[in-house]
Amino acid sequence: MCGIVAYVGHREACPIVIKGLKRLEYRGYDSAGIALMNGTLSVYKKKGKVSELEAFLKDKDVHSNIGMGHTRWATHGEPNDVNAHPHFSSSKKIAIIHNGIIENYAALKTLLLSKGHTFESETDSEVFINLIEDIRENSNCSLAEAVRLALHEVVGAYAIVVLSKEDPDQLVAARKGSPLVLGIGKGEYFLASDATPIIEYTNDVVYLKDHEMAVIKNGELDIRSKEDVKQTPYVQRLEMALESIEKGGYEHFMLKEIFEQPRSILDSMRGRMISESNHLMMSGFREFENKFVNAERILIVACGTSWHAGLVAEYLIEDFARIPVEVEYASEFRYRNPIIRESDIVIAISQSGETADTLAAIELAKSKGATIFGICNVVGSSIARTTDAGAYTHAGPEIGVASTKAFTAQVTVLTLIAMIMGAKRGTLETTKLHQLMAELENIPAKVEKALALDEQIQAISEKFKDATNFIYLGRGYNYPVALEGALKLKEISYIHAEGYPAAEMKHGPIALIDEQMPVVVIATKDSSYEKIVSNVQEVRARKGRVIAIVTEGDTTIPSMADHVIEIPETSEHLAPLLSVIPLQLLSYHIAVMRGCNVDQPRNLAKSVTVE
Q: Whole-angstrom Cα distance, residue 452 to residue 560?
């Protein structure tokens, strides 16, 4: 989950690396460091954010045309100067930056200690670089060959870049299970965990594959497999625009991304659905259409916010296509010996396309012969390359750690899939399908209306910013939204919050309700409306403070609630795309009022690339 950047070429490396680290800080911000080749191999690193490293470098000689940097999310060892990357080998002749986890580091460290290597940090990454040095010294081989041989010894996940004092014009990089993008410019090369540090300089990139190693030396690029077989790089053209990764006048990326949802939802359905002509098609779905239509069961694997989108999909697919769906936490799926059949369809959902737990679940499902369909937001990501087929969400870059537009984009794509499946299976009536298509086309405009409630939601947030607990309640399609609303509040404001199916409240959580307890009830007009009215009455009878998300024009629940947020009316099948918007804004404003860093909440990172 750390961020890595490297550069070699004709420009000054330090400004490029520092700017790149700032763009990757959503991947980790416990500490940061940089290594530069400037007559010698110099390493500078500091605990804290990249800005603290930048201040530390002000009086240093940072002139160099080759360098690499790292921003850390701590795994092995607490955040401090010593555990920050880059890490030197014992001789200080070689340095490494590393994203991932080396699972057999303890055994390797014991072996290296017996050979006289010394260690300053608690990290597995320092073990990795000492292993490379040990191989190089004992095999009398080149740096690139030492790295290649070391890759056969380590178990785990890695994206690494290595610099050597004895090879001052060379960068060596490799990946397995952690992302690494290589940018190709005119006489210069860039390496990064994702494309955001690269697009300012070039649009031509190579996404390194697992077990591939890149050697850049004297302006030449050589990509080889772990078995030393030369690979022909596939150069892709980035479609990302630089302005998409800037704040664009918003105070935080999260707020910008919340307000981008009318466009990101529209982009996620663009070309896939046109209601006027009854056009409904998804190219990634077409090749495996028969398998989907004839599937006996669908498994959805995901983590966090993507898991909540998967829960919405369970309701949609079972309702429209009448196929049983199971939604699994990817982090638990592979460890419980699940029953997977060749006839199963596995839908894997991940914003980044790099989520380690989801990738592990995919590998397990593939080994059992299941068909894997991926839904992710990042072109060229590991999930996009590993799955049999899939669909991109087209949400655009999401920099804020707490996902917002990723959720609604995922739900949009999953809605389209459920509608296509229902149409192909004949389980979704044509009249209902056309009504849903027309209503889905109206959703971006209705999200705009929901976003116009921002000032009202900000005023409500002021009243609850000092609360220590929240309960979120929803029924049917809005139950996953209750879970998502609670997660958003926990993630960025550090307030304890729990989401429940509204009917489950009286099976335990009702004991928590008193005059201090805020209860957010998602109570839009749907098939279970009368039931949710009863749940609100139960909360009010115990003096709970009710914040209700209701359909415009509702008069029943507003008479019971302390605070009411009205959203436009829509089909209950599409309600999550609207009802989640006020919850995102509520969590955002409460977090800002509490002085929290909403874009970089403590202990979290955007892309969870370690298990």
A: 24
What distance in Å separates the CA atoms of residue 287 and residue 567, rounded to the nearest whole number? Answer: 38
Say whether 274 sits in a helix, a strand or coil: strand
Active site residues per annotation: 2, 606
Report the distance separating Cα 447 and Cα 113, nearest Å.
Answer: 59
DSSP calls for 385-417: HHSSEEEE-------SSS-SHHHHHHHHHHHHH
> Rounded to two decimals, what is the model's pTM?
0.80
pLDDT in tens, 146-195: 999 999 999 988 999 999 999 999 999 999 988 899 999 999 999 999 88
Instruction: Please work out, in degrees rounded to the nearest 5, the angle formed at the alpha carbon of residue 237 by the alpha carbons of 260 and 286.
Output: 75
Q: In whole angstroms, give the CA distance from residue 115 to residue 134.
A: 9
Around Cβ 433, how many Cβ atoms within 10 Å? 18
Query: Which one-letter DSSP state was computed for residue 575?
Result: H
pLDDT at 517: 86
- The dihedral formed by the CA atoms of 149, 150, 153 and 158, expressed in degrees to the nearest 10: -130
> For residues 186 and 460, what is the distance between their CA atoms, to the nearest angstrom?
53
278 backbone φψ class: left, alpha, beta (φ>0; ψ -120 to 50): left
Q: Is residue 96 within 8 Å of residue 162, measured between CB atoms?
A: yes
Report the chain's C-alpha Rg in angstroms: 25
Residue located via tokens 């089909």 = 571
Measure CA 551 to chain center: 31
Report the C-alpha gap between 151 and 597 in whole angstroms. 38
100 phi, psi to nearest 5 deg: 140, -165
SS3 track for 484-516: HHHHHHHHHHCCEEEEEEHHHHHHCHHHHCCCC
Tokens matching residue 244: 């998409």
pLDDT of residue 15: 95
DSSP 320-384: HH---EEEEEHHHHTTS-----TT-EEEEEESSS--HHHHHHHHHHHHTT-EEEEEESSTT-HHH
Q: Which of 43-47, 244-248, 342-346 has the lowest mean pLDDT?
A: 244-248
Q: What CA–CA distance (Å, rounded) separates 567 from 511?
A: 30
Distance CA 422, CA 257 (A): 31
Asked if residue 247 has pLDDT above 90, the reply is: no
What's the distance, Cα to Cα, between the start and end of the chain in Å?
Answer: 10
* DSSP per-residue codes, 459-477: HHHHHHTT-SEEEEEE-GG
Nearest to 203 by CA among 374, 10, 380, 65: 380
Give every CB contact of residue 69 below 8 A, 6+ residues apart in sequence: 4, 5, 6, 17, 18, 20, 21, 32, 33, 34, 35, 86, 97
- Cis omega before residue 86 (within 30°)? yes
Each residue of 299-356: pLDDT tens digit? 999 999 999 999 999 999 999 999 999 999 999 998 888 999 999 999 999 998 888 8
